[in-house]
Amino acid sequence: MFTFSYFISPHGFGHAARACAVMNALGKQAPCHFEIFTSVPAWFFAQSLQVPYRYHHEIVDVGLVQATPLKEDAPTTVQRLREIWFPSQAKIAQLAGEVCNAGCQAILCDIAPMGIVVANAAGVPSILIENFTWDTIYSAYVADAPALQELGDSMAEWFARANYHIQTDPITRPTATAQSVLPISRSPRTPTSEIRSRLGISPTAQLILLTMGGHSAEFLFLAKLQQLPYQFVLPGNWQSEERRGNCLFLPFKSELYHPDLVATADLVVGKIGYSTVAEAWQSGTRFAYIPRPLFLESAVMEEWMQKNMVCSEILQQDFEQGTWLYAQLPALLAQPRGQIAQENGAAQAAEFIFQQLLTPTRSKNGLFP
């Protein structure tokens, strides 16, 4: 039995979704147990994981605070970062003790640098999994919050100390020494016909999934949706499942597995975010995206999507005002569906991790796996 710790950023659900895909892939290769350290809600892992684990509610990362799903708040990010970074020696010792007591053989990080700090204190290898790191993202917001420079530089030092490094397509800033893999996503579990039946939507109806990647949003165009001949599913911070005409509102904590919704939809509409892109690519689902100009991941992902997916851009102003519903939606639905991906980067990442940990050679930082 292999035992791993996993430190996961709570910035949206994308990092947790990717981590769950990796954990499930590791569990398919060998018996594994995971100690999960994060402030992502526990229900997310209960729904996504098919391997044994224990959940520790810990604030191990801040990421980038969102004022809205499409607008970042750099000053508040600095305030919250100062509460956890730089971590105190007492806090690191506590977490390192928990890792050691659990018998963990390595710590995986997506993309919380605190996991690398803890791995160093615990004397176990660290494995960084990312398609961007926070120092890269923060660099675009230094003008609004100068303290992000120092904080980002400090994180960059720790990211560079990871014993092993995996980068997942689409990669924001490629590193020559990292192992690159295909996009990592959770896989669908339920046939689309069953999902449509559960949703109460006919097999021939055109279904559109509106998602903001784990961030709740107020859509000002809701009344316009009900005037259209399509079915809409809107996951969000709703108290309960509710149907209003052709719109089905689902709480984030729903019995419906999000990758199943992505695979069932004729079109996914939402902001560019890693798990949304990876799951749409995996299922061959069309994706209409809203770019985020300052978030440096966005342009890289957009270029990758244009080459590898059936996708189209919706300008933020057009999205917020709802003009896209009439100007773009019919053409978006008329595009051919993409091909279902035959491989998943999660399996590639799992294979690489076991290769490194089972090879009796010294890692770059002088630790034996």
Fold and architecture overview:
The protein has 16 helices and 16 strands. With 369 residues, the protein is α/β, with parallel strands linked by helices. It has 2 domains: 2-184 and 345-357, Rossmann fold (3-Layer(aba) Sandwich); 192-334, 3-Layer(aba) Sandwich (Rossmann fold). β1, α1 and β2 form a beta-alpha-beta unit. α1 (14-29) crosses α16 and α4 crosses α5 (114-122). It is globular and about 60 Å long. 45% of the residues are buried.
Tell me the total number of β-strands. 16
The largest sheet, given as strand count, sense and whether it forms a barrel, is:
7 strands, parallel
CATH class of the largest domain: Alpha Beta
Principal-axis shape: globular
Q: What does the radius of gyration come to?
A: 20 Å
Low-confidence stretches: 362-369
Q: Helices and strands: which structural class?
A: alpha/beta
CATH architecture tag of the largest domain: 3-Layer(aba) Sandwich
* Number of distinct helices: 16
Summarize model confidence as the mean pLDDT: 94
Q: Considering the protein shown, what is the CATH homologous superfamily of the largest domain?
A: Glycogen Phosphorylase B
Percentage of residues in strands: 15-25%
First-to-last CA distance? 15 Å
Q: What labels describe this entry?
A:
369 residues; alpha/beta; Rossmann fold; seven-stranded parallel beta sheet; seven-stranded mixed beta sheet; 16 strands; disordered C terminus
Task: Please describe the topology of this protein.
Elements: E1 2-8, H1 14-29, E2 32-38, H2 42-48, E3 53-57, E4 66-68, E5 71-72, H3 74-84, H4 89-101, E6 106-110, H5 114-122, E7 126-130, H6 134-138, H7 147-159, E8 164-168, E9 179-181, H8 192-199, E10 207-211, H9 222-225, E11 231-236, E12 242-244, E13 247-251, H10 258-264, E14 267-271, H11 274-283, E15 286-290, H12 297-308, E16 311-313, H13 316-321, H14 324-327, H15 329-334, H16 345-357
Parallel strand pairs: 1-2, 1-6, 2-3, 6-7, 7-8, 8-9, 10-11, 10-14, 11-13, 14-15, 15-16
Antiparallel strand pairs: 4-5, 12-13
